[in-house]
Amino acid sequence: MPSVAFYTLGCKVNFYDTEAIWQLFKQEGYDQVEFEETADVYLINTCTVTNTGDKKSRQIIRRAVRRNPDAIIAVTGCYAQTSPAEIMDIPGVDLVIGTQDREKLMDFVAQIHAERKPINAVRNIMKTRAFEELDVPDFAERTRAFLKIQEGCNNFCTFCIIPWSRGLSRSRDSESVLNQARQLVAAGYKEIVLTGIHTGGYGDDLENYDLTDLLWDLDKVDGLERIRISSIEASQIDDRMIEVLKHSKKMCRHLHIPLQAGNTDVLKRMRRKYTTEEFGTKLARIREAMPDVAITTDVIVGFPGETDEQFREGYEFMKQVGFSEMHVFPYSKRTGTPAARMEDQVNEEVKNDRVHQLIDLSEQMQLQYAEQFVGEVLDVIPERDYKGAPGTGHVMGYSDNYLQIIFEGDESLIGQLCRVKVTEAGVNECKGVLVRVLDEKVLNQAANL
Predict the structure, then answer these.
(1) Coil vs helix vs strand at 287
(2) What is the 3-state secondary structure (H, E, C) of 132-164?
(3) pTM above the 0.70 mark?
């Protein structure tokens, strides 16, 4: 039986794509082995968001070549899309395929087996208008399924290379999304996380159908308990979307809305499409529609030209609007983007100092958010045995509002919808006690009332 090993760098979308590529190999009778083992094919799914992403990708490719010089070395993903020639120059690479045409992968592998000639299969991504249909029927995590509904981005933020590596925004056909959702529910998943490169841009390229329409259609899928959106821009949450948040019983009380900077001048230089005032107003409207919602965000610190005063103003703004968690990144120069050529690059020490200030703020806000729920009963779907103390009879899962909750219980609870009372709040994890397991039959009766 031929074997394949995978290595994935970068974001959740890449991990989804690797799962989809594994399905292609599985259908051809391949066995999956660990990347550290000897395999017939090594597939490296690369990242190019930062210059270090490129470097790490090259290191991993070389590692695969050393592991088995006779193996087929295939490279896909964002770095492959933007710099195929650089990758083809690495001795031992057989196939470079970017972020499209991956349904042809097995044909290329067969061709290399026959001819042993390297293939560069990368085409211009900017001409691609169709969503690449690759299904993922199941995941290693048995409780949350990721469903990719969108690819690419039209925004061209000045710090970001992604439109060049993923192309322009294109949406998956709605029937295809709904069929995949039904399949995932049939396979036992209770929660679906909608994901994409710019998920909220779903429908920009469709006639009279957008993310709000898709959410209402998913809301009608029997057996689906929770719908989560991996990330969405504040500007994409319009009045119709707010209605969904208000009225759908399945929408999780958790939204990830990237802010990137808390100062309007910095946002303008980033080419973001909102002011801090608009962002704050939108958050207030969302909270009104969905009380207790957890809002998490991304922030880039030390963007070129960010002054101390602008940083302070941003810090105060974040504190004032309040997030339940912030993912904080120091600005990192990406060759080929306008921001990398900007004057006034901020020095590394200043960046690090600011990053630490915002991480401290994030932890304060995480704790504040969690403390509101002590004594309350939340719905939790346990995902696994508690890693902090395996084998002690504790399980870990997420509530619909994205609190990570640990409580006493055995592995039979994994994947079940549990009611859990929160007893103690923490920055990254909270403690709770199991109240009861919600039975499917009861849920169905409740749904039919």
Answers:
(1) helix
(2) CCCCCCCCCCCCEEEEECEECCCCCCCCCCHHH
(3) yes
